[in-house]
């Protein structure tokens, strides 16, 4: 193994976690690990886990493309990954995460906000006997018995989608009713033990700062210091395969730079390995600004990670069906926006609204929002170096086509300021004009549109997603959110990290194994707590 090389595409979480495990647990020679990243060294990297700021009128405006939450049983691979990364001179990223969890005890009071500002604790899940039986049926039915392309609506009645449980569930995981029944089932199984905590969300945990600053950037610093070769302004566009009987190898990588210029290809020897991330939930994203809406102009190509997947799937037909996840943008898109507030007015009013300090509140569903908005707030500062008089929030939205209640336009046609005006209307319908003016004039809202943001939830059938290590593979694995990991849940850091561990286990070091998943339905106490929660 001393002279073998590892090739990875992109500095997303799949590649980063593979590189960290190879260096920290396998003892692989870092100088023989090569990562090809399409951005330049001065650009922001980290895939969908980026976070940054830009200067507007001499003041920083904060931006990020995602917000993630954690808990102690589901995210076992993620936490092991954090334990391998130095955070500072005091300890690892996991040490800092656990210290922050102790300092920030979650205890939600206002779990939902209904029409006319009606507060709801969420204690009443709104599930009757019929809905409880529907949930039990989906959890217990084997995946092999679920028809191809089955939707969540195939297993639940209309009343389920009007329940507090659904509103809270959707705010946490971004499911839509037409999404995959299999993905819904997997989430229900892995988060079964947390159903009884759906209202208080005391089990919810977050990193101290953004995910990018809390573990992505430290991971990049670690592997760079160790000597991993990161090739910026370069991406893998295609690979050549060699086959013999029932075995196959990747034997060549084709490269280009950000300007679409073809670069010299790389020979991949039989002893070398290629770990390829396929697909991306942030491909073709577009930003707006406080004064401009997002771009909705269709693009010619779906992005490099999809392009790579399409190219390899055209040569090896069992390596998934990328076009299945690109088939209908109206089913896979989402919007979100990051708001930077100056002064303490928003923070003060929000804390009064939810009856808790900023940072101990679960995501807040605005159940009557036509744009299906969910408000994520954090303990401040959420960005390193953030000024004391600044507050940053992030809001997801799943109904961009709908006409707003206060701003009578589809969300995608609205400027950041108009989007913020809609948000303020739902939070405080009785907001006086002076406070509204102050909030709008001392803030900056950056909207973002993700055409494929929730594409991994689309209904699917067997073969749409390839395994991490395809049948017969001798030297290549596939990573990211579009591979098939039995019982795993996409749209999580856990999925990307677990995939990287499985690739290493199968192709490099069988002693490296992912931790076992926890299924609460097999534990009596979890079942008793959930029955009590439904009946309460």
From TrEMBL:
InterPro entries in alphabetical order: FAD/NAD-bd_sf, Oleate_hydratase
Pfam families: MCRA
TM helices/strands, residue ranges: none
BP terms from Gene Ontology: fatty acid metabolic process
SUPFAM superfamilies: FAD/NAD(P)-binding domain
Single annotated GO MF: oleate hydratase activity
Full protein name: Oleate hydratase
């Amino acid at each position: 193994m001393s002279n073998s090389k590892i090739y990875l595409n992109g500095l997303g979480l799949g590649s980063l976690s593979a590189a960290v495990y190879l260096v920290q647990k396998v003892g692989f020679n870092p100088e023989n690990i090569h990562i090809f990243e399409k951005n330049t060294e001065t650009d922001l990297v980290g895939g969908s886990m980026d976070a940054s700021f830009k200067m507007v009128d001499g003041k920083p405006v904060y931006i990020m493309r995602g917000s993630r939450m954690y808990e102690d049983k589901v995210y076992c691979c993620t936490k092991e990954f954090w334990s391998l990364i130095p955070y500072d001179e005091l300890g690892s990223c996991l040490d800092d995460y656990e210290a922050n969890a102790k300092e920030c005890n979650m205890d939600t009071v206002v779990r939902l906000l209904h029409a006319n500002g009606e507060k709801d604790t969420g204690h009443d899940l709104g599930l009757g006997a019929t809905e409880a039986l529907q949930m039990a049926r989906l959890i217990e039915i084997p995946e092999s018995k679920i028809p191809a392309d089955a939707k969540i609506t195939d297993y639940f009645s209309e009343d389920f989608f009007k329940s507090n449980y659904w509103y809270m569930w959707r705010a946490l995981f971004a499911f839509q009713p037409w999404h995959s029944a299999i993905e819904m089932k997997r989430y229900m199984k892995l988060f079964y033990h947390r159903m009884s905590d759906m209202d208080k969300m005391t089990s919810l945990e977050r990193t101290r700062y953004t995910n990018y600053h809390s573990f992505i950037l430290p991971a990049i610093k670690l592997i760079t210091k160790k000597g991993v070769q990161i090739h910026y302004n370069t991406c893998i566009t295609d690979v050549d395969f060699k086959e013999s009987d029932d075995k196959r190898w990747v034997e060549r990588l084709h490269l280009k730079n950000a300007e679409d210029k073809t670069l010299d290809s790389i020979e991949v020897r039989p002893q070398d390995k290629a770990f390829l991330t396929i697909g991306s939930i942030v491909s073709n994203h577009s930003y707006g600004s406080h004064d401009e809406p997002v771009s909705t102009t269709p693009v010619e190509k779906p992005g490099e990670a999809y392009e790579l997947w399409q190219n390899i799937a055209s040569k090896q037909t069992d390596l998934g069906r990328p076009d299945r996840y690109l088939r209908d943008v109206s089913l896979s898109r989402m919007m979100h926006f990051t708001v930077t507030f100056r002064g303490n007015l928003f923070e003060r009013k929000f804390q009064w609204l939810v009856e808790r300090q900023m940072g101990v509140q679960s995501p807040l569903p605005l159940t009557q929002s036509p744009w299906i908005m969910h408000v994520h707030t954090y303990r401040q500062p959420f960005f390193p170096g953030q000024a004391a008089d600044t507050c940053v929030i992030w809001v997801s939205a799943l109904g961009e086509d709908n006409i707003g209640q206060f701003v009578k336009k589809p969300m995608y046609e609205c400027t950041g300021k108009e989007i913020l005006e809609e948000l303020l209307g739902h939070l405080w319908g009785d907001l006086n004009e002076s406070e509204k003016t102050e909030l709008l004039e001392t803030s900056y809202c950056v909207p973002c549109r993700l055409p494929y943001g929730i594409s991994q939830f689309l209904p699917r059938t067997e073969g749409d997603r390839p395994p991490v290590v395809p049948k017969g593979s001798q030297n290549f694995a596939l990573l990211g959110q579009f591979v098939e990991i039995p019982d795993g849940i996409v749209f999580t850091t856990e999925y990307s990290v677990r995939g990287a561990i499985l690739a290493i286990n199968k192709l490099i070091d069988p002693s490296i194994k992912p931790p076992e998943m926890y299924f609460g339905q097999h534990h009596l106490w979890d079942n008793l707590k959930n029955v009590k929660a439904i009946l309460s």
